[in-house]
Amino acid sequence: MDYKVLTQNVSVCPQITVSDLAEIHKKGFNTIVCHRPDGEGADQVNFTEIKEAAEALGIKAVYQPVVSGKITDEDALAFKQILAEVESPIFAYCRTGTRSTTLWALAQATEIPVNDILQITKNAGYDMSGVARRILNGGNTPTDTTDQKFDVVVVGGGAAGISVASSLLERQASLSIAIIDPADVHYYQPGWTLVGAGVFKPEETVKTMSSLIPKGVTWIKNAVAAFEPDHKKVLLDGCSIIEYTKLIVCPGLKLDWDKISGLKETLGKNGVTSNYRFDLAPYTWELVEKFSSGKAVFSQPPMPIKCAGAPQKAMYLSCDHWLKSAVLDKIDVQFYNAGPVLFGVKDYVAPLMEYVEKYNANLNFSHNLVKVDGPNKKAYFQDLSASDTTDLLEVEFDMLHVVPSQSAPDFIKCSPLVDANGWVDVDQSTLQHKVYPDIYSLGDVMNAPNAKTAAAARMQAPVVATNVLHDLGMSKTRAIYDGYGSCPLTVEKGKIVLAEFGYGGKLLPTFPAWLINSTKPSKLAWLLKEKLLPPIYWKAMLKGKEWFAKPKELN
């Protein structure tokens, strides 16, 4: 008997037999609901047999036969009534468990957010994306049709989304394009490291979304609830339906602050900060500027994360300030990295280690931050290299810079677009979806093994634009992405190790070594980061100007 738990009150299962009832009773179920009509299969046990044996064990048995593939709104409402009236926990079954799961999903439509329903059922092995529209409509069959249709729909108005929309328009201005994003503002997130170092002001890293949406692009200010890739439709909150010819998925990442127990309650106070949030980066600088002695702890979660070098950049810039303020010798600097190495591309490890030694920072690998006690200034780390990872290492701190673990947004993770790890499943060269050829993805949310940086999105945007236009019959060429990513490692105020690399850690420097040696700290690279990259981002990348980003053609 292979049953699946949906909630603590409801489990579902394929067809059961009388002999299964003893185990069902032992597991503590009080009610059985049968959703399979008698006589549907030759090997099927009739409900009356199940009912008699169940009631002999003190289990209530309810018969709600539903025809496979024909679940009505009334069926869902009836099951909702059953859930309200019978004693839980409830054990529901049909031929495969799908009907019971579908009825539960529709019955909970007004009680649980659609993303949670889709994720719960997906975790149980049941794909409910086919009824997502009904869930969004309160469990009822929608009577509406497509609200809007576009040649290209872009999900996400971040760096990747606006850049790819602009790149498309630069190549083919006649396209009808929509960007779906509920946000009012757009952030230049690479600048937050420098906000945390007192170099940038927070307001330099933010603009209104309306000022950045390319002219000629329709901005749909709403959130995506689900995808119907077989029908080329995107479902929005409120059950609006957007139809596309081509879909580009790039909503960025979700920061999982909740995965670190106690963190949300102490962020922004008690010496706990993070450059990964707009409102907290100024607090980082406030702490660094006032810090003169004690223990400073910096954490890095398991990969993947956006800008993998950012956790240690915060450490380097803080240490540089303390060194120049002549207080570093009074500060115990600890870096706890969930990974096994300082940086994933070996060519950059040696120059970074020179700064680790210069700042007398202590490296602790394979340690993941799982709990923070802000008022008592204690952090708790899981030793991932230990045989028993339940024992936690308690670390006292005076200042704690935290980087949360990161994942795809919930509406992506529960969609049919993802691989087994929850990332949009694409070909790493063309960035085309492996199952749905009318879908492309770029930026942080897809599963190509590249660094998740704005520089990567800058290179990916023209590749996706070229390939989408080829598929639409508007271009003769296709393009490939070589995995390029860039991580300007700010090792001190005024110098940067400009890490640029592609798939497999291959170095892909933009500039000749005589100008900027990417494996050496460089003043010119700092100038690039501080003075040139922000205007390049706002005025070139987001405008479809592909400086140093011409896509490579697919042979």
UniProtKB/TrEMBL annotation:
Lineage: Bacteria, Pseudomonadati, Pseudomonadota, Gammaproteobacteria, Alteromonadales
Cofactor: FAD
PANTHER family (alphabetical): SULFIDE:QUINONE OXIDOREDUCTASE, SULFIDE:QUINONE OXIDOREDUCTASE, MITOCHONDRIAL
Protein's recorded name: Bifunctional protein tyrosine phosphatase family protein/NAD(P)/FAD-dependent oxidoreductase
Domain Beta-lactamase hydrolase-like protein phosphatase-like: 2-110
Protein keywords: FAD, Flavoprotein, Oxidoreductase, Quinone, Transit peptide
Keyword field contains ATP-binding: no
Biological process annotations from GO: sulfide oxidation, using sulfide:quinone oxidoreductase
Keyword match Secreted: no
